[in-house]
Design brief:
single chain; alpha/beta; five-stranded parallel β-sheet; five-stranded mixed β-sheet; about 50% helix; globular
């Protein structure tokens, strides 16, 4: 057993915890049996989790364990992890009874009955006694049941007193006698009619302060409907025979009917009832809801007979697919008959086995028609006294549980990263594995024919959106991911909103948006379009899982892709070469175009142009041709080309393998062309785009390409991905010698050169590394990026450059500390300090501070902190210490250290007095 499985189980079950009816599933003995472990082993682990604040413990007999965060989200915050009793637990909420939503366990409360329940609550919560409402629906759809449930809900929420009455009156009994109806509804006074020997209150007065339910209200004639107008208009009634002042009655009125309201009721009556609730018949509800109703009724019967029930899969399948004309009411009676039949046949014992042999004859007669009905169950379902209804209903939907569990695991792994227990690379890999397993299970474990049409529709829409947006975003995804995403969206489309940590979801969503801005925009647009087209309810975790899945399957940015095609005359010449090359390279590098011998150069160019348009995410294109078309085809598309293109003739398998290997190594096409021309007797021609060149920044160092590459990596980490700016490392000597003749200036629109020595390229701005680190290059950055991004983004780039270019050389030498963690901690300190003091720290001081605090952390861990301050302790310095202390608390908590006051004075000096590194830092 994985420990995560146990925690996931407790998270799910705590959502349904009822402190007034505690289930045994929260005990160590039940958990040990469920997960196949020794009781002392699981008790040890549970108590560990209590000590760490993950679980709470209720020290009753038996002892109960709940998931703390799940409990707090569902109920109220807790101040400790152990409680002496349930009463002690409730005392955390000032002794208030936990308020339950009576509709939350109603089958379909988030499905077919969601809208009716919202309407019922609207009528109930309306000020001044609520609004009258009319419930419509076929016989057996649950009108009376909902009316009773509404009464319980109103009491639970304090809208009516706990002793408030529920009075039900069936109007069909008085359809032919309106006077008798009036006397029963409104009461009568002594002498009102023959036999009225004393005053008598009617149903309205009996229901005063509570709810009056008038069923079969369509059986009232027009005169009977009109008798209700006085109460509907003024909240008053008159007893029969009473002519004086009316009686004020505070009643919440519910009507119910099985008939069409417009053909049965007076218009003047209908317009007085603002809330009209329509209940669906059983066949209009989803299969999942019908299955859940069947299980609920068997569960109720098991409790009534006091025995366990063993339900056969075939029986459940038949009941699920049988058409019950009497709706839920008939289904309930059939279940009751089945249990009664099994009870009569089997008598005593601990468990009754119910099967199709216990069905009534009316259902048995339809078995031949239902013979081919697919069963959603493979094993018997056993119900006993320990079965909890929420768990029973939830357990039947293994797919939704699987999705929910993966969502929880993803959030748990992200929390490990936030707490610095794992690196992001490790967490990202584990999350990718979780999602991959989820999608595999969704594809291979779900062969539900009922959802096949929806799957086809969703998958086709996902494919269409991906193809449309790949071109817009200049990215390309693995096509296999489309099918997996289609399955996920189908199987989570009916998923209830997950009880997940909302704040943690938002943090993860924000983190991913910062880390993968291009993918975030892509996912948002895909899901927004699918929401419009397919009426999906997209949840935040859907976007998170989609983004992480696409990132795992691999997104190829346009700057990293060189496409290649083979053009050759003959029936299968190009195809044969491409097939062999792709198989030997173990990757699809080439696409092929087999050309008839009489094809014109213009037709060839047209095909190439179409290919380019379909693959606009490519950064360059290599075309290998067989013969004379070389000097002809390029003239037809040179003006249309939007990427560098090299055309090489005399294609062969050897050439295709050589070029393919160089493409996979990431070489530029001009390098590939020059290298192959040196080895083989070929001609080549490079066509550079005239417009819309990709933008790039060149990094170069006099010490060599290695340093330039390191500089390139740091700069890439500083520039937001959505700007689409490539950072290219280049040899300094080559640039200094060839200047603008170098091919990179034909390939890219070069925005700037950054390095340790200026190669002197005309019309290309140069920014020295020293200027960049000191922060004096801000004006240059503003001029560089001002035309392509916002001022906020420029500020962000500047801050990232300060962080990336000034810290690592020092921090990486502090061997016992994690470099990335230190940088992030210092960044949090700076952000917090600037927020508290409203002071913007200049870049040069930031550089000094990053280095100083990094060394300071090392000193604190080694318990070698500075205890004395050599300068004068002025009052102006002391005024800044509280803010410094509070801002530094982030680092203190992370490393479990305490910063002395002397160290705070030195930090103050760096921020406000000096920028030099301190002697201690230099010695360190």
């Amino acid at each position: 057993m994985r420990k995560d499985d146990l925690l996931t189980f407790l998270i799910n079950q705590t959502d349904f915890f009822d402190p007034h009816d505690v289930s045994a599933i929260f005990t160590a003995s039940h958990l040990a049996e469920r997960f196949g472990l020794q009781r002392n082993t699981i008790s040890h682990y549970l108590n560990q989790q209590v000590a760490q604040g993950v679980l709470i413990k209720i020290n009753t007999r038996p002892v109960y364990f709940l998931h703390k965060a799940s409990f707090e989200q569902q109920f109220y915050p807790l101040t400790r992890n152990e409680f002496a009793s349930i009463t002690d637990l409730l005392a955390e909420n000032n002794g208030e009874r936990v308020q339950q939503d009576h509709f939350s366990l109603l089958i379909g409360h988030e499905g077919s009955l969601k809208k009716p329940i919202e309407q019922l609550k609207t009528a109930l919560f309306y000020p001044d006694g609520g609004l009258p409402l009319l419930i419509t629906g076929d016989s057996g759809t649950g009108k009376s049941y909902l009316a009773h449930l509404l009464h319980e809900y109103a009491i639970a929420h304090g809208l009516i007193d706990a002793s408030a009455p529920f009075v039900s009156l069936n109007c069909a009994q008085y359809a032919s006698n309106p006077e008798l109806l009036a006397s029963n509804l409104f009461g009568y006074v002594k002498g009102a009619f023959t036999g009225a020997s004393q005053d008598k209150a009617g149903a309205f007065e009996a229901a005063d302060g509570g709810i009056l339910f008038l069923d079969e209200v369509h059986r009232l004639h027009a005169e009977g409907q009109e008798k209700l107008f006085t109460w509907l208009d003024r909240g008053e009634i008159y007893r029969v025979g009473e002519t004086a002042a009316g009686r004020k009655v505070s009643v919440r009125l519910i009507f119910a009917t099985t008939e069409d309201i417009h053909s049965t009721f007076l218009t003047t009556f209908i317009r007085r009832i603002p809330i009209q609730v329509a209940l669906p018949d059983l066949e209009s509800r989803s299969r999942k809801e019908k299955e859940a109703l069947i299980l609920q009724f068997f569960w109720l019967e098991a409790k009534k007979v006091g025995l366990g029930l063993r339900i056969s899969p075939r029986l459940l399948s038949v009941l699920t697919h049988y058409v019950f004309r009497g709706n839920v009411g008939e289904l309930k009676n059939v279940v009751k008959y089945v249990v009664a039949s099994a009870f009569a046949k089997q008598g005593g014992g601990q468990t009754l086995t119910v099967s199709i042999h216990d069905l009534p004859e009316s259902v048995m007669a339809q078995l031949s028609v239902l013979n081919e009905a697919a069963s959603g169950y493979n094993e018997e379902i056993v119900l006993d006294e320990n079965t909890r209804l929420p768990w029973l209903l939830q357990a039947q939907n293994a797919t939704q549980n699987l999705i929910h569990d993966v969502q929880l695991n993803v959030l748990t792994l992200f929390e490990h990263y936030r707490q610095a227990h794992s690196s992001w690379d490790d967490v990202e890999q584990r999350i990718g594995h979780e999602i991959e397993n989820l999608f595999d299970r969704l594809i291979f474990d779900n062969q539900d024919q009922a959802s096949s049409q929806m799957l086809l529709l969703v998958t086709s829409q996902v494919r269409e959106e991906f193809y449309r947006l790949e071109k817009s975003y200049n990215v390309q995804f693995n096509g296999n991911c489309i099918y997996a995403i289609g399955h996920y969206l189908v199987h989570r489309s009916s998923l209830e909103p997950s009880r997940l940590n909302v704040d943690l979801c938002k943090l993860l969503d924000h983190f991913l948006a910062q880390k993968y801005p291009l993918l975030t925009l892509f996912c948002e647009e895909v899901l927004a379009s699918l929401t419009r087209r397919l009426d999906l309810r997209i949840q935040p975790m859907d976007r998170v899982l989609l983004l992480l899945w696409l990132n795992k399957t691999g997104v190829q940015a346009s700057q990293l892709i060189t496409k290649a095609v083979i053009l050759a005359h003959g029936y299968a010449t190009a195809s044969s070469i491409a097939n062999v090359a792709n198989r030997l390279l173990k990757q699809t590098v080439y696409e092929s175009f087999d050309m008839p011998l009489d094809v014109t150069p213009e037709a060839i160019a047209r095909q190439v142009t179409e290919y380019v348009e379909r693959n606009s995410q490519a950064s360059s294109l290599v075309i290998l041709v067989d013969m004379g078309s070389l000097n002809d085809i390029h003239q037809y598309f040179s003006r249309q080309v939007t990427m560098p293109v090299v055309i090489i003739n005399n294609v062969s398998t050897r050439m295709a393998l050589y070029v393919g290997e160089r493409i996979l190594q990431g070489d530029y096409l001009e390098t590939i062309a020059d290298a192959i021309a040196a080895d083989l007797p070929i001609e080549h021609n490079i066509i550079w785009p005239e417009l819309n060149k990709p933008k790039a920044i060149i990094t170069t160092c006099a010490t060599g390409i290695g340093a330039a590459s390191n500089l390139s990596s740091l700069l890439k980490a500083s520039i937001p991905q959505e700007l689409g700016i490539e950072v290219v490392a280049y040899e300094y000597d080559t640039l200094a010698e060839n200047k603008r003749r170098e091919p990179i200036f034909s390939r890219f629109e070069v925005l700037a050169l950054i390095g340790t020595l200026d190669p002197g390229i005309p019309d290309v701005p140069y920014i020295s590394l020293d200027t960049l680190i000191s922060g004096q290059g801000n004006d240059t950055l503003l001029a560089l990026f001002g035309a392509i991004t916002s001022t906020e983004n420029i500020t962000l780039i500047n801050e990232r450059i300060v962080k990336n270019f000034s810290l690592r050389r020092v921090i990486e030498s502090v061997t016992i500390l994690d470099t990335s963690k230190v940088i992030n901690q210092v960044e949090q300190f700076l952000t917090r300090y600037q927020h508290l003091t409203a002071i913007a720290v200049p870049n040069d001081r930031k550089v000094a501070l990053y280095i100083h605090v990094s060394c300071l952390i090392e000193r604190l861990i080694r318990q070698a902190a500075i205890q004395t301050y050599s300068g004068a302790r002025l009052q102006c310095q002391r005024n800044h210490l509280p803010a410094l202390r509070e801002a530094f608390s982030v680092i203190e908590a992370s490393y479990s250290v305490k910063i002395p006051e002397a160290e705070l004075f030195y930090i103050h000096d760096i921020l406000h007095l000096a920028t030099e590194f301190l002697q201690y830092d230099q010695q360190f």
